[in-house]
Amino acid sequence: MTHAERASRWARRFVLAGAAWLVVWQVAELAGTTRRAAVTLGLLGFVLHTVFGKAYALVPPYFDRDLATTRLMPVHLACSLGGTLLLGAAASGVGRALLPSATADLLALAGAVLWTAGVALFLGTLGWTVRGNLLGGETGTGDANAERRPVDRAANLAIPVALAYLAVGSYALLAGHTPLPTLLDGYPPRASHLLGAGFATLTLFAVGFRLLPRFLVAHPPRALVAVVLPAGALGPALLAVGLPAGPVFRLGATAEAVAVVGFAVAFAVTLVRSDRHRVGLDAVLGSVALGSVAAFLGLTFAVQPPTADLVTAHRRLNLLGFLGLAIIGASYQFYPPSVGSFRGANDRTAVAVVVLVAGGLLVETAGLLGGRSLVTGGRLAATVGAAVHLGLLVALFRDRFG
Fold first, then answer.
1. For residue 49, what pLDDT is reported?
2. Burial of 218 by CB count in 10 Å (0-12 exposed, 13-18 middle, 19+ buried)?
């Protein structure tokens, strides 16, 4: 097996692990787990495992490099899986009910150490890979796409910022479970926003501006690229520092809303300019629409303190709606269901997944905002969609890659 084949195989395993965590997360939400456990399973488990896998695959060629080594990828995967499992177990309602407090704290400590160790391996591998091109001036963009280079360079510049957010956010997570000095007061949502808005969302913006226009064979508006990337780079830091209220928080919420809505408009314009409409791209369109709703909710938090249900709606819209549907849509672009030779290997199955997840989330959100009886039905639909998505990816990988 060649170096490239090994890198691709382990990248797929990260993606598959993320899809498995998506199912675990939805089942846990359906069972009524704690907010901290839900964030752990949704953000660290589903979103970040997937982002790790695609970053291993995409960042080196975007920086005109080959991945330095694949030997650390399985160690990273083991650390991140173990860390997420232990952190989730310690934070869950079951863990709190069955385990003595000291044991739960020990599990959380071990989980934080494992998670941070995995992140260190990831950052070390990518850092060594792009060490001669840290700012991404070399884009690997061929002469046939020379007109894309300004956007590609701008997108590359955002990647080191996103990786810095990952490092700081993981340190904040570790410090919250160890005697290490905490960031500010150690308020857990600070770490969540550094990892979610800082690393995952900024990576989505950067990779999205390179990847999605190529899928669509069209160009995004450069003016919006110039707005989205700086706002997306600054907003998470202001949010993390300003939480839970105050002028810095309001400034951060505004910057992040500008970035998310700007990205949504940029993608919509690029989609209109294209004649390529596929289920994966439609899922991304749904994701940016739901992300815009989440950003609006976040702005309202800056004006008045939110209720617990509004906080839950904001979290679910961001993690499952914005980041989640973007991941699902991108998955179907990279791994089209129609290339499979098994029953159900078609776009109808992919559409069913998107409808179940997006529709279920909308029903759940309506319930959280005013009709509590709808919440369970919405979460059940999303859980079914997540399970079908996992099954589809497992079958596709087995069918195409053995």
1. 98
2. middle
